[in-house]
Amino acid sequence: MKNMLQKRWLKTLLSLVAAYGVVQLLIAVGVINDYIQATIATICINMVLAVSLNLITGFTGQFSLGHAGFMSIGAYVCGIITVANPTLPGFLLGTLAGAVTAAVVGFLVGLPTLRLRGDYLAIATLGMSEIIRIVFLNMQITNGAAGLNGIPQFVNWTWMFLFTAGTILLIVNFLHSSHGRACISIREDEIAAEAMGINTTKYKVMSFTIGAFFAGVAGAMYASYFYFLKPDLFNFQKSVDILVIVVLGGMGSISGSIIAAVLLAVISTVLQSFPELRMVIYSLVLVIIMIFRPQGLMGSREISAALFRKWGEGLKRVFGKEKERV
Amino acid sequence: MAILSVKKLTKSFGGLTAVSNVNMELQEGELVGLIGPNGAGKTTVFNLLTGVYEPTAGTVTLTRNGKGKEIQGMKPFNICKAGMSRTFQNIRLFKDLTVLDNVRIAMHQNVKYGLASAFLHLPAYAKEEAQLVEKCMELLRIVHLDGKAGELASNLPYGEQRHLEIARALATDPVVLLLDEPAAGMNPAETAQLTELISWIRKNFQLTILLIEHDMSLVMKICERIYVLDYGMIIASGTPEEIKADKKVIEAYLGEDVNDA
Q: Which CATH number fits domain B1-83+174-261: 3.40.120.10, 2.30.29.150, 1.20.1250.20, 3.40.50.300?
């Protein structure tokens, strides 16, 4: 078991270094320009948002419509601290402070609202994120509707990569622990989970708090990369955008969230050249995917060596048959 | 020594008294049956004992390691920790999870590693997880599911799902096990196998078992004592022979004597 774990770690580490290296090389060579870099940044931020929301909605089964609220807390706290202290340690401190603040708010909001179920929880979280937005809109320190401008940019590809990979690894690790399994059992059957000794309220709040923490990290990444914040960026629409990634990728699939974040960003970028039809085609793609894969691209499965083997066998069967026919 | 002692347990839903004044006493190591016609309130009694419902009145005392504890009104997960575990009449497995995960989740309360280990997979994590898998496989061997540890629970045939529920209940390390119609929907061969399994786990886990069952062949064969519930009240209790001969029980099941009509 220990050996297996070490091997898995090594494999993960190698593939991560490879992914980082390739992009870093392409940036150095100049193949990836500023515009593509901004798209990559958006993808990374969306991945962090989707994976953390997936923990709450896909794995723990708690339907939340307030993720943009937690993101905005991380963004503003990090933004304000970085403006006051424009150094790298200042930015890192801001990120941590933003994430912790988001987690604390998540904890406080989660305690009463997670007693609600289904639609009620969705409405309560929606209301919460609207309240957060209105608060930021009316505060002096956030510069209200005019927005917070001139946040020093510390996040480059390296930081983007570290934050994104770190978030995904930590959440995947959590899900593969006993605590993570306790969260998943709530989605599966709350009454059975309680009867088997799981304190469901505690684990719902825990999952909600962890999700809020990483949404705060995503907000900090956003603030530092795009150096401009206004409350409107974090409206209801933003929460829905995140939810779309989660549902499209598959509730309860981390790889699904990652794939969907990339796919939607690519579709959106490609469609930039047709501004009139962009949203129409984007929506059509969503509708079509949902008709043919209502469980999302990945369902609740993960990409793994076993899955590739299965696909390989399936392909073999298909192509084998065709050969026979010929 | 009484392991589980129920006194004057009552539950009203609005004007309807589903369970009234139920007294039961389970001695250490006993296998006791709870029978009664449909709608008599058997499952309600289980739900009261395990904390799904809060009793309107009465006390439930569970004794573990010689220490008695009143558990009525406690949350289900705390009652489970106190030493009472159960299966469900309408199977409630974690369907989209593997057989192994179903049992592993039930062992969660004994997991000691903290959140830091969970996030970073520190050595404590690897060590405890390995032990956890070993313990789960032991339990799965008992119910003959060790060969299917990696399968999804929903893919198991019906009878094996019932067995998995028993393994999962055992994983919580109970002193009292409540089985809610474990043989429902099973054929005679499967029921015979289940009967053997229940006797075996009682002996080897030193469990006290309370069993709801409609299959009289199973109840009469393995239960030492039987409580009969009708309209939420205990109408009779005793050995299987006494129950078979009890006039009130026959009336409850078959209706009143023809001569009275």
A: 3.40.50.300
